[in-house]
Design brief:
By secondary structure, the protein is of the alpha/beta class. It folds into 2 domains: 11-50, no CATH class; 59-156, K homology (KH) domain (GMP Synthetase, Chain A, domain 3, 2-Layer Sandwich). It is 24% helix and 27% strand.
């Protein structure tokens, strides 16, 4: 087993055929399920701007969620390495995607706004500085081609 390689697999199943398939742009739903063995189905759709269902997750939200989750998990790991005890973590993340005239689009940036509570007020500065290291080891942030900014707030419990 090669410990340096990790493989992931899932199934995306379109559930939006209303009977006529993709006979026209408005004839089908963008609904789909993301299926991962052993986990509940993740109900997905397009962004409502693109005729999606606002009660389902869209890929843009999930990309933002993946970045925020990865940064949090990387940050908690780095905090342990540096002896910083984190007692709470919350991130109000935002992302900006731009559409192009040809119908394509891409994310231009993501801003993570983690609010971290640490047990020791004397470690607040150290804790704040660890976001840079966490970004360096976050698998998802290292995989995207747009800036992931951090505006952390650190408070003591």
């Amino acid at each position: 087993m090669n410990l340096s390689e990790h493989r992931y697999a899932l199934t995306v199943q379109w559930t939006g055929n209303r009977g006529d398939g993709t006979s026209s742009y408005r004839s089908y739903s963008r609904d789909h399920d993301v299926l991962i063995p052993g986990l509940p189905p993740l109900k997905g759709s397009a962004d409502p701007t693109f005729h999606g269902d606002r009660e389902r997750y869209n890929p843009e939200q999930l990309l933002l969620a993946a970045l925020a989750q990865c940064h949090m998990l990387s940050y908690l790991h780095v905090a342990v390495k540096h002896g910083v005890v984190v007692t709470d973590y919350r991130d109000e993340a935002t992302g900006m995607m731009r559409l192009n005239r040809d119908g394509s689009g891409q994310f231009e940036r993501v801003v993570l706004n983690p609010r971290v509570t640490v047990a020791d007020s004397g470690q607040a500065d150290l804790a704040a500085s660890l976001h840079h290291e966490a970004n360096q080891v976050c698998f998802i942030a290292r995989s995207v081609n747009f800036p992931v900014e951090h505006r952390p707030v650190t408070v003591a419990a």
